[in-house]
Predict the structure.
Amino acid sequence: MYRTHHCGELRLSDIGKLSTLSGWVQRTRQLGGMTFVDIRDRYGITQAVFNMNTDAALCEQANKLGREFVIQITGTVQERSSKNTKIATGDIELISTQLVVLNASKVPPFTIEEDTDGGDDIRMRYRYLDLRRPPVQRNIIMRHQMAQEARHYLCQQQFLEIETPFLIKSTPEGARDFVVPSRMNVGQFYALPQSPQTFKQLLMVSGYDRYFQIVRCFRDEDLRADRQPEFTQIDCEMAFVEREDVLQTFEGLLKHIFQYVKHYDLGDVTRMSYNDAMRLYGNDKPDIRFAMTFVELNDHAKGNGFKVFDEAELIVGICAKGCADYTRKQIDELTLWMQRPQIGAKGLVYVRYNTDGTLKSSVDKFYNSDDLAAWAKAMNAEPGDLLLVVSGDAAKARKQLSELRLEMGSRLGLRRSDEFRALWVLDFPLLEWDDDDQRWNACHHPFTRPKATAEGWEKTPPSDLKAEAYDLVLNGSEIAGGSIRIHERPLQEKMFDLLGLTKEEAEHKFGFLLGAFEYGAPPHGGIAFGFDRLCSILGGADSIRDFIAFPKNNSGRDTMIDAPAPIEEKQYKELGIKAN
Amino acid sequence: MYRTHHCGELRLSDIGKLSTLSGWVQRTRQLGGMTFVDIRDRYGITQAVFNMNTDAALCEQANKLGREFVIQITGTVQERSSKNTKIATGDIELISTQLVVLNASKVPPFTIEEDTDGGDDIRMRYRYLDLRRPPVQRNIIMRHQMAQEARHYLCQQQFLEIETPFLIKSTPEGARDFVVPSRMNVGQFYALPQSPQTFKQLLMVSGYDRYFQIVRCFRDEDLRADRQPEFTQIDCEMAFVEREDVLQTFEGLLKHIFQYVKHYDLGDVTRMSYNDAMRLYGNDKPDIRFAMTFVELNDHAKGNGFKVFDEAELIVGICAKGCADYTRKQIDELTLWMQRPQIGAKGLVYVRYNTDGTLKSSVDKFYNSDDLAAWAKAMNAEPGDLLLVVSGDAAKARKQLSELRLEMGSRLGLRRSDEFRALWVLDFPLLEWDDDDQRWNACHHPFTRPKATAEGWEKTPPSDLKAEAYDLVLNGSEIAGGSIRIHERPLQEKMFDLLGLTKEEAEHKFGFLLGAFEYGAPPHGGIAFGFDRLCSILGGADSIRDFIAFPKNNSGRDTMIDAPAPIEEKQYKELGIKAN
């Protein structure tokens, strides 16, 4: 038996007990003939004491312990004279009578502390050591709790957890598939699922009614920062539902997770149409922890001879509360920030609404005080505020101003990582035009149901079609997306046709689904949560990487195990492939 | 809103309610101006009634419904005059006032009933219809419950569910890896995990203490019957444990699942050494639902001039209770059964212990009544029993007799699918000699700890070494296997050396693990349950296939989606591979 207690367990009520602990040496201190050893495990830290006067040999042994040695200490629990209120076991200490070194440790390449001196690369290479650090451990444990609570809620709602296959068929469109050469069927490949989409729809056809799965998905994309080639979804589908049923069910899921994991009352989830989100925030996943909504100024700002505005499709601004005291230098810096290639604004117009009621802008040449006062009024500005205005092509101007809004929100401390606001974005467009391929793409995916239109969706111009799709946005990040699906073969065929798939391609790729729709497919819809992202937001962090036990770097590599790696000639042969 | 109630929900207490159900047409009957429609969903079946006299148009509509149409029926709940005690809703029926066909259905290619007329191939091709059948649905729902209860138990025991990566590195030895070509690192491959073995050990090094995961694993093996290329494990690991801790924890898991899913008290789990299992059952996974243990007869049967026995390494028999009345024909048939190539016995010796106390054998030429009585005594036989004896090479004879024992157990009804007996098999050999490669292989895996020996394990001949390994056997199937692991770098290096890995190979394949062992690796051990098999045994079925929603066939194909399949030329190019 390696231990009688965990390192976070002993209390005043255990005084006098003979106890054995096993764990890691957090630190040792020598002080006037005494040696103090902090022993650590997942559950906490306990102080063990060795006394040179009582047992010199044992104390010498303790003096030789290094950081991260794995040890077993037996001793008697005693009340501490000077208590440590920072740790749960701080009232007691262990008067050690026995010490066993279970395993030694080299000096770790970085410190195993709350904040470490290790850089990203070395921490990834020694991920097993980084995982010992308290912040990473808290993340991994929180992720565990979130998964259990998600399951708990969904099971209560009569969802069934059903496993779908990982070795499926490649149906490349949109993101790239990872493929797996088949040895038993040489020349053929499996693909790893980008999501269990078609399988969960088949489960609805099979009558399982409510399905979920916390499941790994794969996408062979060029990795932008904070994307992983493998990621985890909470994947869900329901039969006999309308949009409202789905929204309420998964609003409930999110609230449950917040309540039981964060002890945080999320409150109601706001709803907003895609159009409003774009108009008011320039973004289909607005951060609504703060307002600073867009105000369009075309009616106020055109026709004064300012060519930039006169030629602009859209003039749009935000009001930064209390920022009228921004210096010229600060505003210049903001302007340069907006002109960086990542954002690409041509410029930034400002109006200072001074506390004395006067107005001062960068376009005073074209607009007098009354003009500017009208802007300020339109923007609900008060003395002390700063108006920031961009213009140009409508879509670009909105995107640029959205970035500025988020930046100003951050600078003003309006995006607190311990405050949470969730939002449903509804009524997305069904299709988006692909200029490169000269065809329509599905905004969500080809299985999404078009919203009914007055004249029938087939007579509506494709660009006007809306989707029965919804995104769940938390603090400005999309954490879930879903839709009501098509469940009729003819409609699904028309959709494939609209997306430019020939009948043969549709049959080859999705014939099984089209077939299933002919045998009694019920109306259905669902959603998938990006679990890694959800974890990082609840954890108050920007990066998902420290919420994944063994993540890959931005080149898709695991530097700890050194994967991917070459394979043996024999493997190539068996698979019937060779390097090109 | 598609429904107010499920199809298994309405009761006498709902009488008078206006209710809407959605589901599938199970069957329709017309009877004297009335049409009865059974509407089905996952929760049950409800009878809806249409009356030609009340609403002829509606009734006509109902008459046109076909099997598996998806419909929505609104009506008033009424007490039935003739109740159906076989279904939960059998006290009531729905007097229909509205009928909507949500989706039509072609006539299914096989009947959606408890027993179907569909063969294996067609059921696999239309898996989404087979999944509607009640027995398959029960299996899938039971699997869901088992997963939840397993998690529930393990969470109570403070295990953390931690996800490990699917895209890892190929370390071919033993089974073949599925590999995934990397596009971003051309010429390199990921491998899909055969199990998360090294990652869960790293988690112990990281201090997570108790880990579990219900996780998909992959093995590119030539598929024997009832093997799947992807399969699910309940994968677990614990730190600071000895064998006893692991056995008790997972005995607890199995009992918990039986109690909460099957409402079955499994009782204590028997323990047996590998040597005893082989000696008494000829099998390292004995079915202990019945005794019929092996008795060795070398001391009784040698030296009587029967050359077959005299030259045999082992003479070993079982006593089939109450089978003395087997006819000559029955015994001949058993003998032929034993002589089939799959079993390969040369012959089968029998002794009838007749109810009148006389003994009659197939070797009366060599053994008199006293000789045979001595056998009978050694085998604890009583009048009425039949002794069945094989001989030859010890390992082969045991294997053959094990098959016969299982067959006799089945014929005698001693292997009931609703009776469950679990067994730990302990003290496995550490190594087995590979005649082909002329080297030692690990019986369990290279990370398994050798049992301590009196003279130190390095001085013990490899063939005598035992492993700190254990298998959990349920009704004659191995449902879990695990071991206490090596946690010291020097010992792990010696083990790799013993297994014929060069230092370079060991470093290339497992350098990260050897490295981790230098930074404070705690003693640890674990286990993995084969979840598919566990489900099938609890479900009382022989095949795992109907406990997997979308299984593959024996050629590793999913005939429903038609995978694996060729990929596009563009994909080959991007991956830097070509067909050989």
